[in-house]
Amino acid sequence: MIRRAAIAATLLFLLSTASVSAAASVTVQTVNTSGYNPSIALISLASTVSWQNQSVSTNHTTTSDLAGLWDLTLNHGTTTTDLAFNNAGSFAYHCKIHGNMRGTVQVKMAASPTSATLGTQFVIVWAAAAAPTGYVFDVQRKRPNKPFKAWMTGVQTLQTTFTPARKGTFQFKARLRKVGGLSTGYSPNLAITVT
Ligand SMILES: [Cu+2]
Question: If you measure from the C-alpha of residue 84 to the centroid of ligand 1, how many angstroms do you get, rounded to a whole number?
Fold first, then answer.
């Protein structure tokens, strides 16, 4: 799910498939042991979270709550550690040294276009790179005036095409799930509008 220094390649892939641009990276600072600032980092698919440890003497970690996704030491002395997130979802993490330090990385889905007339084919994207080995994606869809329902469950594809059969706002959200195990939270909702 996570790659260091592979952002350019990922972006090229994303642009070529869905014409979606990623937002700039978000910087999360640790000044002392009180927590991560901001505690919620909202990023576009394939964007980067840059953790900056501003402490003179205290090390921290950024460690995914879902064991094994990532576990990095943030060394003291204003060092920076970058991670790119290539799967949509809500990724809770913590510091292994200071248990009260908790944060979340929210990775948005993408669509192209995001608004179009009836009959248009949309590309709905929940990943810019394959899920880690042993993981799959769950994607839910919300039709106009209906609740969210399972749409793609346990898939390994990164995106799909979707041609809505009616006008209105459709929404989507995705998560990463370990086969037979725990999952991340769902991503923020992605909305497309059919006029
Ligand atoms: Cu810490």
Answer: 21
| Structural domains present in the chain | 2-107 (2.60.40.420), 110-194 (2.60.40.10)
Residue 35 CA, ligand 1 centroid: distance in Å = 7
Instruction: Give the pLDDT confidence of 120-142 residue by residue, as tens digits.
Output: 999 999 999 999 999 999 999 99
Per-residue pLDDT of 67-91, as tens digits, reads 999 999 999 888 899 999 999 999 9
Q: What is the Å distance from ligand 1's center to 101 Cα?
A: 6
User: At a CB cut-off of 8 Å and minimum separation 6, what does 86 contact?
Assistant: 1, 2, 3, 10, 45, 46, 127, 128, 129
Rounded to the nearest angstrom, the distance between the alpha carbon of 110 and the centre of ligand 1 is: 32
